[in-house]
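Example 343.
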Amino acid sequence: MGFGSVEPSSALYDFLQKSGGCAVIDGGLATELERHGADLNDPLWSGKCLLTSPELIQRVHLDYLEAGADIIITASYQATIQGFETKGLSREASEALLRKSVEIALEARNIYYQRCKDCITDDAGNDKFFETRPILVAASVGSYGAYLADGSEYSGNYGDAVNVETLKDFHRRRVQVLAGSGADLIAFETIPNKLEAQAYAQLLGEEDINIPAWFSFNSKDGINVVSGDSLRDCVSIADSCEKVVAVGINCTPPRFIHGLILSTKEVTTKPVLVYPNSGETYDAVHKEWVVSTGVSDEGFVSYVSKWREAGASLIGGCCRTTPHTIRGIASALHKGYEGKKEK
Ligand SMILES: [Zn+2]
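Predicted structure in complex with zinc ion:
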């Protein structure tokens, strides 16, 4: 399933319609790779697995599809050409790794479809499941702060030396490569400030990017984005960009999400997406998650119908959520699939 050459916004509406009005986004990728034993203590974070364990990335994508995700997000969040080059890789090899992040997800989708085909056919041997279960591959783009890996991903403070041109120059080639990789859309994730939203919107306008995008911001107070910039200003930038087909919030505690959906809806009519984290806080000094601060999967899932009622139409999970969380979300949205086993 791809958007092809159809007008971007109508393509997402079409996807949502085929998905029953709302769609399930997958859960945390990096933290799920870690749960399976990957050591991501590296500037590339989950991007490191593109080099060391691509098969594990594919397994996690498949686990999310089996759990009911309609959209899977690639392992390119913190995989950057600059980061790969720092490790001594050539420009060509770095770009190939970005493409590989999408290839892994596309292949997971194919494997999943094949599994469905093997088990779900009608009397005439036709696969009915494909018609009702389109799956999108979203190519992840993390922020400049995620690349810096210095905490600015969650402060949104890039200092005075960084301007919109710096950010466009930083992101340009990665966005071009990912846009040409076969992904269905680009997921600009965990956007910490207005400046970076402006840079993305300008890049989408200036470059020949032929797939749509979503913008997803993070908040630590339930009111503004993490830098303190107004969420409304940030959402308005996304709203004005015709290549942006959905806008919302990720990697933010569940308790803030309801209010953030309402604020978002005040400034855009585009579909609203939310994929909160587990609510646990990350202790950057000890490099670990403070488990006691989060919500259980049951607690997380109990919010889902309220988010849907408030107007979110794409719902999933971010850091520290798992296939179990996604299964709960799918079921809360009445989108559980028969015959899919828990891993
Ligand atoms: Zn996250």
